[in-house]
Amino acid sequence: MEKIVILTGAGLSAESGLGTFRDEGGLWAQHRIEDVATPEGFQRNPRLVMDFYNARREQAAQAQLNAAHKALARLQKEFPGEVIIVTQNVDGLHEKAGSAVIHMHGALDGALCAACDHRWQAPLRMAPGDACPKCNAPAARPDIVWFGEIPYHMEEIAAHLAGCTLFVAIGTSGQVYPAAGFVQEALMHGAQTVEINLNATDVSGAFQTHLIGPASQEVTRWVENLLN
Ligand code: OAD
Questions:
Q1: Whether 94 is catalytic
Q2: pLDDT tens string 66-75
Q3: Which domain holds residue 39?
């Protein structure tokens, strides 16, 4: 049976109006990674970090799906084989489209207790010192994987990569590991590889096929071809 593993990144949601990280004017041009996306930054200035994710949570909640999210949901529903979607995105748009998805970098709508690891639905606005509903420690944080932390579900993802016949990366720059290394793992296990992006990336050389253009167009066309 055919098994497709799809890795998505910020480029998938760019046409929904959500900024990417490394494109010109992207999030990492406006904010320092060390300040807003590391455990140390959170320790130094929890207010700044909460405000950063509060703003992104609000923006994501208002964002509309684009054609690429919808096409991937359709593929997952109609493809006769298995379709696994692994996302680095924290915006929740895959779910809104009806896809089942593995969130390797966490999600904006999640809160995590730094004291007891309990997880719950994040309110639209989180504040430093918010109490954990389970252990009551004032230790709530966004359930987002920061730099220096280990991405979620890595064993499950490795098993999917080992068993896939096709690996597709969409809208991701290939600059952040371990996700950037997934293509190599898939190749090692004999999978075909496709990259869909506006332009070449740091890892383009590892892909056999390149579909260059906006995700809304390229993903939609690719899905239509696969289903026909
Ligand atoms: P990046 O911002 O690094 O890369 C976005 C990619 O999307 C680039 O390769 C763009 O060329 C491409 N792109 C932009 N618009 C597009 C469009 N309309 N159609 C197709 N492609 C488009 O974002 P990621 O690779 O997702 O991690 O970043 C990976 C991780 O780095 C993120 O999950 C985040 C960040 O730091 C954490 O916060 C832990």
A1: no
A2: 999 999 999 9
A3: 19-62+106-144
